[in-house]
Structure formats: C-alpha cells, structure tokens
Amino acid sequence: MASSQLFTNIKTLVTNDPAVDNGSLGIIEDAAFIVDEGKIAWVGSAGQAPDADQQFDVDGRAVLPGFVESHSHLVFQGDRSVEFAARMEGKKYEAGGIRTTIEKTRSATDQQLKTNIQRYMNEYLRQGTTTVEVKSGYGQSAASEVQGVKVAATCTDEVTLLAAHVAPEEYAGRQDEYVQMAIDEMIPLAANYAKWIDVFCEKGAFTEEQSRAILTAGVQHGLVPRVHGNQLTYGSGVLLAVEFDAASVDHVVYLSDADVDALANSNTVATVLPGADFSTRNDYPNARRLLDAGVTVALGADCNPGTSFTTSIPFCIAIAVRDLKMSPNEAVWAATAGGAQALRRDDIGRISPGARANFMALDAPNHLHLAYRPGVPLVSGVWKDGTLTH
Ligand code: NIG
Ligand code: FE
Description:
Layout: E1 5-14, E2 27-36, E3 39-45, E4 54-57, E5 62-65, E6 67-69, H1 81-88, H2 98-106, H3 110-126, E7 129-132, E8 134-135, H4 142-152, E9 159-164, H5 175-190, E10 196-201, H6 208-220, E11 224-229, H7 237-243, E12 248-251, H8 257-264, E13 269-272, H9 274-280, H10 287-292, E14 297-299, H11 313-323, H12 328-335, H13 337-342, E15 359-362, H14 369-372, E16 379-384, E17 387-388
Parallel strand pairs: 1-4, 1-5, 6-7, 8-9, 9-10, 10-11, 11-12, 12-13, 13-14
Antiparallel strand pairs: 1-2, 2-3, 5-15, 15-16, 16-17
The structure holds N-(iminomethyl)-L-glutamic acid and fe (iii) ion (FE).
Fe (iii) ion is lined by residues 71, 73, 228, 302, 304.
C-alpha cells in the first residue's frame, strides 16, 4: 500500500526550483519534503512540515536531485585499457579507436549487452545518477545498431541511436555509402526503439553534409537530434545542432565566437563531458565562456570504453569546477537540472512538487563538498521514484 514519507532534518536541500531562489540552486536550509506515490508532494522548512505516514531522518545531511546523465555509450563489449595507457604515454586519441569496440560489440548476444548496460547503470546509480541516457553506436551495421537500441530500451527510456559514430572497416573510404545504408536500412528500423538520433560530426568521423543527412533521416522517422560536435577540432557540429534545434550538442571543446553566439540564441544545450578530455589529454571546454554568454550548460560523464570509462558524475563535477571554471553551484546545476534540460525533461533534475522523487543524500552538510572533497564517496543514499536503491 502506498504511503507518504516525510524526509526531514536536511541541512541543505538543493531543489533547483526557481520559485525558491531564481538564478541559483533553490537552496532551502533546515529543510524537509514529502514523497507520495513516487513523486515530490511538498517541500519547505523542517519546522513547517505537515504530517506523513512515515518519517525518515536524514541526520543533517545534504539532499539534492539525482544526477541526470544525458550522454553515455553503454552498448558495448570489450576493454581498451591498453589504448588508454598508450595515450598516457603520448599517443594521440583518434576516432578510429572506436573500431576496436565495434568488432567486440557486433559479436555480443542480447544478454551480454544487457548485462553490460545494467552493470554500468548500476555504477551510475550508486553514485547518485538516477537517469541515464544510453547510446548505441558501436554496432555500425543495421543489424547490430537495431540490436543495441532494442536492448537499451529494456534498461532506460532515454535511448539514442548513434547512427554514425565512425564508418566501420568494411566501409573504409566509402563513408557516403555507409551513410546511405544507415538512412535506408538502419534508421527506419532502429527508430522503433530509440527516442534520439545522434551523429559524430568530426574530422575522422563524419562531415557536415553526411551528418546533416543522418539527422534529416532521423527526424523523418520521429527521432529528436543531438550531436557530438567540436570535440577534437573546430568544426560545424555546433552550428549543425542549432540548425536542427537539437536538444544538445556535446563535448563543445573547440568553439568559435559564432558557435557561442548561435548556442546563446538557441534551445540547444551545450553539454560538457570533461571525463573524455581528462582521459584523452584533450583541452577542456571553456564552460565559463559559454555560461557568461548565456548558454545553458549540462555536465555528463560520457561513460564509454574509449575516451571516458567513468560513471562518476561527482568526479566530473570536481573537474568542471577546477578546470572548466564553473562554480560549484553551476556544476551541480549542470549535472542535475542541466542534464534534464538536455533530455528535454521537466519531471526530473529538481526536488519540487510534481517531480519524480529521484534524489540523493550526501555524507556532507552541503553540495559544495562534491567538488571540495574530490574522489571521496560522499553519496550515502539514493532514491528513485521514492524507493531507496542504495
Ligand atoms: O563521446 N566522441 C565520440 N564518441 C565517444 C568516444 C568513442 C570511443 O572512442 O570509443 C565520446 O568521446
Ligand atoms: Fe560520446
């Protein structure tokens, strides 16, 4: 039988509710909230809390919305630690490394793929991430990509068909033919299981024209665009994303003034993924420049076996604060409400009436500790739809 639960004795509550405190995190000190039927029913000061069927004493901890990961590549098999080690000894990262994972992923069974997705979604969850977008993209054949999105759809509502990640071996030098195959064979079938269409618009991956063709086909099949852009070089990914009113453009490391202006005047979120820049020894994106221009910034971990084999959003928050020049408040917002906006969701990323009761408690008096205490496992409880999961 469903019963209401009062969470109380919260030292610092991050609500992300503009009605509480516009322009910041909607923080309430000495707070409480009520969960009813998996949703937030009431939020306010502990002293004014109404009665509920059950009470949960948070013991002076901080509580914040579950992190929203808007960018992961969990449909994969295999390990690329040797490639990582070579990079740390000076080898440059190239998109071609993706082909190593394609080979392994193509021969996986549905169960192997599902086990892998669940393993890393569970890692995310333990560290406070209650929503995870999952991309395919290591199949790069119609059959393997359809398999990937179909399996991913059994694990999350946020499934992305990364139709063009890198042209596989058998299409080497025949990129246009690969794109045509994706349009004719892959996208129409995969669209039954995915919500988003993504493309890696980058030197060594796909050109602007090829990327435009992929996104156009995705839209024709009811998918909503998101783009990997400007990760390794200056290029047209950002402008293409804005042209398509994409939900987000991700990586955004190498940006022209025109890119920043276009983002500032769009509905497209710029998603920074500093785990990838960390593990490829790439430059970091200048999140400060984006924020100062009025761009909406989201922060994700980008878990994938090639460039960013981490599921730790707290780790990415620490980097974002130290090296992307975000304030701790901006980084926490970007990893919660920002991720929700990048997925065009208004039911997650906040603790305010009507939202899904997805939240975490920290072994810390406030959210600043996420960046202040890097590498420390502060997440001490995670609730999804009102149920304690960890
Ligand atoms: O988000 N940018 C392209 N895709 C992945 C990495 C892919 C790989 O190297 O396996 C990323 O960084
Ligand atoms: Fe990616």
